[in-house]
Amino acid sequence: MSRASLPLLELDLLRTFVAIVEAGSFAGAADVVLRTPSAVSMQMKKLEDMLGRQLLERDSRSVSLTRDGELLLRHARRLLALSREAVSQFVLPDVAGEVRLGAPDDAAERFLPGMLRMLADSHPGITVNVIVESSKRLAELVRTKAADLALLTCEAGIDGTAAAEILLRERLVWAAVRGGIAGERTPLPISVWEDGCAWRKAGISGLERQGRAYRIAIQSAHISGQRAAVLADLAVAPIPASALGGQIIEADNRLGLPALGHYALGLVVREEPSAAVKAAADHIRATFTQGQMAA
After folding, report:
1. Does the first or last residue of the chain, that is N or C, have fewer Cβ atoms within 10 Å of its Cβ?
2. What is the pLDDT of residue 295?
3. Which pTM was predicted?
4. Domain 97-167+265-289 is of which CATH architecture?
């Protein structure tokens, strides 16, 4: 076969292929590309038949890339990015500028990677500068226009967050290491952060209502520090359910730890935002509304 007769890759097929890889399943990809799982399967068969290579290993529970699939994935992401960039020059020529986006450490770790990737895809003319700070500090930065918009932990009594637009409410849980014994100790060792942290407030208030003895064993402003304390079996920690994973699991009900309820994540936007800031804010709202954030 000559180079002139090589088939052209269809961007629609590549988009579905990337969606399968990122969602980890055909069903998840179907939700992203707005097709049925059977249509997604047919698209993958067409792509594999065109290339004459198997791209995915499938079993009843998961999908993984073959070596050929890994090679195509790099090309697919580049081609899709080039396509979006080219189209945006005509469809979104005026949406450009700098956006200073703030987020607490945990939100930056759990939500920003996917959100920033999708924002770059839809608005390549926007440059994002990320500020990772406490919710209290971020509220002040937005108020003084030192930041353009921010994701904040809400409903914890922090000044400047009362007017935040709620994007997400999530269950809080007690995190423990698999097979650990920290939750059996008295007083109960816990890992939290400073006053004003919604997770700390929920955990300590619950323990005090129970009359349960506790001690603050570890203080960390970062969720990575709380994870380290839990993994070392030095403490249990109140964290969002979506932050569980690997050896960090929800503490056993037999420990009798208090229910923690939920916490809220909200969005605040500076006064008189630019077009780029408005576009970024709308994109953030849409990604949460559509349930596309990886938790």
Report:
1. N
2. 38
3. 0.64
4. 3-Layer(aba) Sandwich (3.40)
Q: What is the DSSP string of 169-208?
A: EEEEEEEEETT--GGGSSSEEEEE-STT-HHHHHHHHHHH
Determine phi and psi for 273, rounding to 5 degrees: -70, 150
The encoded tokens of residue 127 equal: 């440059």
Rounded Cα gap, residues 8 and 75, in angstroms: 13
Instruction: Write down the mean pLDDT value for the chain.
Output: 86
- Which regions of the chain carry the CATH code 1.10.10.10? 3-91
Q: Class for domain 169-263, per CATH? A: alpha beta
Considering Cα of 124, then 125, then 131, then 137, what sign does the dihedral take?
negative
Cα–Cα–Cα angle for 55, 58, 59, nearest 5°? 170
Calpha distance 118→129 (Å, rounded): 15
Q: Is 131 helix (H, G, I), strand (E, B) or coil?
A: strand
How confident is the model over 27-57, as pLDDT tens digits?
989 988 999 999 999 999 999 999 999 999 9
d(CA 16, CA 155): 39
Q: Where in the chain is the domain with CATH 3.40.190.10?
A: 97-167+265-289, 169-263
